[in-house]
Amino acid sequence: MMQKTQSDQADKAPSIRSRCGLNAANFFQAEAVGVVLPILNTFLKEAHWRYDEIGVASALLGLGTLLFQTPAGVLVDRLKGRRILFSVASIAVGICFGIIPFVPRNAIWIDSLLFLSGVAQSIFIPVLGALALALVGYKALNRTLGENQGWNHAGNIVAALLAFVAVRYFGSASIFYSVAIASLIGAFSVYWIRKEELNEEIASGDGKQAEVKWGTILRDRSVLYLLAAVALFHLANAPILPVTALYIKQLGGSSELTTSTVLSAQLVMVPVAWATGRLCDSWGRKPIMAVAFWVLPLRILSYTFAHDPRMVVFLQALDGIGAGIYSVAIVAFAADLTRGKGQFNSLLGIFATAQAIGGVVGPIVSGVVLQHFGFNLTFIGFAALALLDAATFQLLVPETQSEEASQAALAANI
User: Fold this and answer.
1) How far, in Å, are 277, 366, 369 from residue 131 at the CA level?
2) Which domains, and CATH codes, for the chain?
3) Nearest alpha carbon to residue 323 among 134, 189, 157, 185
4) Residue 372 burial by CB count (10 A; 0-12/13-18/19+): exposed, middle or buried?
5) What pLDDT digit, counting tens, does each position of 362-382 carry?
């Protein structure tokens, strides 16, 4: 009876204030870190760093996130004060970036701060998923995730536009001040979510039985197949943005045109994320995620036919389809696979680790292939990898939405 009461409480519609608080947390988290790396590289180059030193610095930021992504998910499952956890992580990111212009510009200081900021950022994916589930429960989770991710991508767009203006008029160091300000606002905005509207018990997976160990969850074939598909998806997709940026320059495109590849994709992600939240309920998790997986090889292969830099920008905008769908659907999969078992946030952290591995390995592989075989073979090779991944997902990953959950979600939509 107690579990039913908790679930019913979580499925009640949240107040407008709490919804705004969750959306604001997603917006400012993205706004804080969305465009730091390109400008960081410029900042370090102005400080006379070598290219290999800059590469190590960027890698350490990703390494901090990669190493702590799974432990971060476990931590979010164990701790109940998740608003506090988000606030602490957000402030830590703001401090790490905000003091960069004031510390000695040597590797010990800069690399350490970037690594620590990566560690803090590992908290964001599981804790924001946990807050969404705690606030709205399972019935409205996907629609809420779509809304949250729409605001998250909007934050990236605003960050890119503000960064362009700030760097142009105030220099590259200004980006770090803006990150500190956005992080501070984000840290306090999460408290707009009313504590009494959060069901902290359901936030870790609504455990109706003795909590299942996350090692047991990893032995589930559905989890393993999805984990492999996620890693391959990001292994194929992560290198494409930097490769297309180089391809645009190779075709004679301007730096402004190169920058627009990021903005164009983010503009597509906003409506796609909002739509995915609803389609996860009406179509199911697998059909909508399959769209992301099958679009990827078609998009990558299409670059081999693009010989105008503006066409490359247009095609890169289609990245917003895959990214917009993935950011919502993967949380829906994790919620289904852990419902009644607990470990929801731990599984989110594991999926994020697989994503990070693909994001680290993919660019390294693409650099080697591009150096020795050129753009066309690079695109063909990664398109083939993406096609293999799409087939893996289609054939091996099952639908995880139960009929009961589908009917309940559709009723909630009505």
Assistant:
1) 16, 36, 41
2) 15-204 (1.20.1250.20), 211-409 (1.20.1250.20)
3) 157
4) exposed
5) 777 887 888 788 889 999 999
